[in-house]
Design goal:
There is one protein chain. This protein is α+β, with helices and mostly antiparallel strands. Helix content is 25%, strand content 32%. It has helices spanning 19-35, 39-46, 50-57, 65-75, 79-84; strands spanning 101-104, 109-115, 123-130, 135-138, 146-154, 156-161, 164-169, 173-178, 182-187, 192-199. The strands form two sheets. Strands 1-2-3-10-5-8 form a six-stranded antiparallel β-sheet, with no helix packed on it. A four-stranded antiparallel β-sheet has the order 4-9-6-7. Strand 6 and strand 7 form a beta hairpin. The longest helix is centred in the N-terminal third of the chain and has 17 residues, at 19-35. The radius of gyration is 18 Å and the shape is globular. The chain starts with 18 loop residues before the first helix and ends with a strand.
Length: 201
């Protein structure tokens, strides 16, 4: 018998939740409890299904960027603010190895918090990587009127806001205030890497 065979009736071992995902799950459950909302109430407010919310709060699944964006909108936070609440407090100098990284594996999106939110500061820097063919749609901003500056470092990125599509190539920068839906899509069939500067209103 092969040493790596699985005994009859037994499936592969359950996946251990990622530590960041586990802390995020606990934080999401805490925020809902603080507001006094049931899962059904939060589902109605956010437009995210009750089952998805329940699984996310139990760390049975890692929420996608689109789901987190909807929850941030309900809780009045940017995504960086929410993620910073489950990570170590930022220091004045953030070394490369200390910059928190979060992945939306299903969506092909990797997010590095280069300059995480800090008390007394309204701005933050985020490095985004979109895999070839990745297409992320957000139906609302986490905070209305959020100021964003998107500087493409590698590849090409198509950003749609207010029904206007902007094709950005390496070196191009898009400046906008976000009031409605936005969409980020890697163009030209290659990975897109960009720097996002966010300034809260």
């Amino acid at each position: 018998m092969r040493s790596d065979s699985v005994p009859p009736g037994q499936g592969p071992p359950a996946r251990e939740p990622d530590p960041v995902d586990a802390r995020l799950a606990a934080r999401l459950a805490e925020l809902r409890t603080r507001h006094g909302w049931s899962l059904d109430e939060l589902a109605e407010r956010s437009g995210v299904s009750r089952s998805t919310l329940s699984r996310a709060e139990r760390s049975e699944t890692s929420p996608t960027a689109a789901v987190l964006n909807r929850l941030c909108h309900v809780y009045g936070r940017t995504m960086s603010q929410l993620l910073s609440e489950v990570e170590a407090k930022p220091t004045p100098v953030v070394r490369t190895a200390e910059q928190p990284v979060w992945q939306d594996r299903a969506g092909g999106f990797v997010r590095r918090s280069v300059s995480p939110p800090h008390a007394g500061l309204r701005g933050e820097l985020v490095e985004g990587r979109l895999a070839a063919g990745a297409d992320l749609a957000y139906d609302r901003p986490p905070v209305a009127g959020l100021e964003q500056h998107i500087w493409v470092l590698e590849g090409a990125l198509e950003v749609t806001e207010q029904q206007a599509a902007h094709l950005l190539e390496a070196g191009d920068c898009l400046r906008m205030r976000v009031w409605g839906p936005t969409r980020f899509r890697s163009a030209a069939g290659t990975e897109a890497r960009y720097l996002l500067a966010v300034v809260r209103p």
